[in-house]
Prior knowledge:
This protein is α/β, with parallel strands linked by helices. It is built from seven helices and twelve strands. The strands form two sheets. Strands 1-2-3-4-5-6-7 form a seven-stranded mixed sheet, with no helix packed on it. The protein has a five-stranded mixed sheet with strand order 8-9-10-11-12, with helices on one face. Helix 4 (about 105-110) runs antiparallel to helix 5 and helix 6 (about 195-205) packs antiparallel against helix 7 (about 225-235). It is globular, with a radius of gyration of 16 Å.
Amino acid sequence: MHVSWEEFGWERLGHSAGRRRLPVWDATVALVAGQDGALLYDTGSTLREGVELRTQAEALLGRRVTHIALSHPHFDHVLGTAAFSGAAVHGAVGTADLLVRSAEELRADAVRHGMSAADATAATDALVAPRHQVSGESTLDLGGGLQVLLANVGPGHSGHDLAVLVPGSPVVVLCGDLVEESGEPQAGPDAVPSHWPAALDRLLELGGEDALYVPGHGAVVDAAFVRAQRDRLAARFGVS
């Protein structure tokens, strides 16, 4: 039986990609499907969400997710990763050490934002750190001529921001929380404001004027939105 992306609440982004805005924290996950492999960008905030995403991805594609890319090491984007046994997990260089070292901080942050202690503990106990760390850029061949680019464009929103470029018509740039549409970008204690505008310049350089830019929270935006947010961040943090 054919299952449509829309039945699961996913928004199509061109021929090979789609994304879903998850409940509670409105974090975006994205799925990129090649002929042979499939990449999931972020994994949800709990093991339960991770299992749901895995089930949906397998129903949509008829096969399993082969690669995970983590946009940055915040709880609402990484705590479902353990649901994807066997997938190769990618993150910006330094992400793995940070997740291993800061599991208790991650759990506490999740609880502070309203997650139950049981869900937070279960997810951090099963925490999966990336084995494939991206310094600069890395290309993944998903088959059928689809090669996606993983780009370590941070630091900015966090110390370890990883974007994904999906070629096609249109080009799709998965931005993580470097870009936010549903509210002002959040600068927590691990943000690096002095580099954030440059990270957005890099996203614009990668995607170009006609790309779709997928924020970590909120609706899909265009290059003009990213440029305007870049300028507001530069003014907010006193960066040229």
